[in-house]
Amino acid sequence: MCSICLTAHPASGVALMTARRAGRASAEEYASAGEYFCSDLACPLYVRGRRRVAAGGARMAESLGTEQRVARMRANLAGFLGRVVR
Predict the structure, then answer these.
(1) What mean pLDDT, rounded, does the chain reach?
(2) Which residues, listed in sequence order, are joined to residue 35 by a DSSP beta bridge?
(3) I want to staple 7 with a disulfide (CB 3.0 to 4.6 A). Which of 11, 46, 67, 82 is the partner?
(4) Domain presence at residue 1
């Protein structure tokens, strides 16, 4: 499952994306942050319903509207980027 747009994919549909964290020189601190992203980086299309998930994957039924899903996706991405630059 993509941790940004919350789309469930078959095994090859997500990829672990990592980024080196800014200012981490000590071995005692975690030097990178990682999240599972859609491997095709099409999160905005999945959230807006403009792309269908491959066989074996699914978008869960939600009561949120499109704008709320987009806001959640942006917040999830901002959270990942925040962990990278902290």
Answers:
(1) 89
(2) 17
(3) 46
(4) no
Number of Cβ within a 10 Å radius of residue 76: 17
Domain of 29?
Answer: 11-85
In the beta sheet, which residues pair with residue 14?
Answer: 38
Asked, for residue 70, whether it belongs to a domain, the answer is yes
Q: How far is the C-alpha of 2 from the C-alpha of 18, rounded, in Å? A: 14
Domain assignment present for residue 68? The answer is yes
55-81: pLDDT as tens digits: 777 778 889 999 999 999 999 999 999
Tokens 């319903």: give the residue. 49
Name residue 9's amino acid: H
User: CA-CA distance, 36 to 3, in Å (whole number)?
Assistant: 5
State pTM to two decimals.
Answer: 0.84
CB burial of residue 46 (10 Å; 0-12, 13-18, 19+)? buried
* Tens digit of each residue's pLDDT (9 = 90 or more) over 19-40: 988 876 666 667 889 999 999 9
